[in-house]
Each structure stands twice: as structure tokens, then as C-alpha cells.
Amino acid sequence: MPAPARELSLDHHLLERLKFSGMDRENVADLISIAVSLKNKYGIAPFSAIPQGHPVRDALTLRYLMETSTLTKIINVLLDTPRIHTVSISPRGIPRTSEFEVRITLGG
Q: Which residues of 77-108 are buried (b: 16+ CB within 10 A; e: fewer)?
């Protein structure tokens, strides 16, 4: 019987994803620590992470899917999050009227 696969942490996945992004290592580590703290404190995990910035990549955009109840709780938290640049919230539409896509850009 094969051994169960070990689940890797969010910070490991993000570090692997952003290894060759062209971002400064200290900046990447700082932005990832903010994303990981949001997951650890509030249970929200991003489904996408994309480096941003032109000509120098210095920001990270994280995309989340949230239900209405989570969204109302997280708004106040986001206002106190360090290095937040932008937040955009879009409804998913019919038939998922209670789901929202939230884009959070850190850094920049």
C-alpha cells in the first residue's frame, strides 16, 4: 500500500510558483508571509498568485473565491492588512449569486 502523499504548505507552493518571477527575494518572502497569515488567521487560501509590476515586478496579486458571509467578515480585516495596494470584488453571477471573486494586490 503506497504511503499517503505529504501535503505541502501554502508558503512552499507560493515560493515555488514565484521562484523565477524576477521579484526581489526579500519582497517575495514578505508578500508570501502576508498571504500565509491571511490563510492561517482567517482560513482563506488563494487559488491563484500572479506577480505584477512593469518594468520591475514588485507586487503580487492573489485571487480568492468567497461566500457572502466570509466576504462581509474579511472586509474589515483587509483594511488593516499591511502593504495592500488594491482590492477588487466581483460577483460570480448566475447560478453562483452568493460567490465572489476577490483580487488582492500586495506590494507595489
A: eeeeeeeeeeeeeeeeeeeeeebbbbbbbbbe
